Amino acid sequence: MSDGYMWFEGIPFPVVGYTLEHLKAMRENFVFKDEDVLTVSFPKSGTNWLIEILCLIHSKGDTTWIQSTPIWERSPWLETTHGYKVITDKEGPRLITSHVPIQFSPKSLFKSKTKVIYLIRNPRDVLVSGYFFWTISNLVKKPESLKQYFEWFIQGNVAFGSWFDHVRGWMSMKGKENFLIVSYEELKQDTRSALQKICRFLGKTLQPEEMNSVLRNSSFQIMKENKMSNYTLLPKWLLEGPLMRKGIAGDWKNHFTVTQAEVFDKIFQEKMADLPRELFPWE
Length: 283
Ligand code: A3P
Known about the structure:
binds adenosine-3'-5'-diphosphate, alpha/beta, two-stranded antiparallel sheet, globular, Rossmann fold, 4-stranded parallel beta sheet
């Protein structure tokens, strides 16, 4: 806690909303149901975008839910004490979110048929998005510069640890019937096709007008204006600005120095070269 994180088994967690007791109990005791849908991502991968999409698919394009209930109540974060309570109090099929590395996930997940969607994003954009986000949040230690945050990110000394380890860990589920990988980049490039892929995985069929509503209401601009999704409902002492920042792929090019870009390329190669290339559509 003294360095701005809560450490658990070598991984830094945010200090607000998390406890060690809860993380331990969650791993041992939480019971997934086969009909649950779990979104997993490293923070700043576009998690809230995917949640908005899943909520709208669930309501067949009807916007009542997304306009009346905060996003963190619709698909709560299992590892937060508040989110856990909302999830366990809920009846029926549940949308659940998690940022934890796979070793912290509840053991019941691996015995269930819960549908798991792993959202992946170019780590360079995750880094830049994280730098700006943690600068305006009071959940973890604030970086003083992008240069400093770059170092922390490479070392895995950021909330939820190393991006590289996170991806590598969760990729051990690749190939399972109940595991789908979606990238931020494919969502950006062809949102409709990515939505159809998600619907197929969930076994949902949407009418064209329902699909159009999902597309429209999960767009960056509409989400940015939806106070139930843009995090402006949070108190300022927790978050000082909006979650929706730029919403583009490749913003890292506006922020990395040439040297940083080279260093990152080298590290990416060293750490991820043995994983299938198609996992990383931005490379
Ligand atoms: P940027 O900071 O690059 O703009 P998370 O939800 O995992 O915290 O990720 C936040 C990132 O997703 C931010 O990226 C945010 O702008 C982007 N994002 C949120 N909603 C989006 C949307 N509807 N379309 C595109 N990007 C979105």
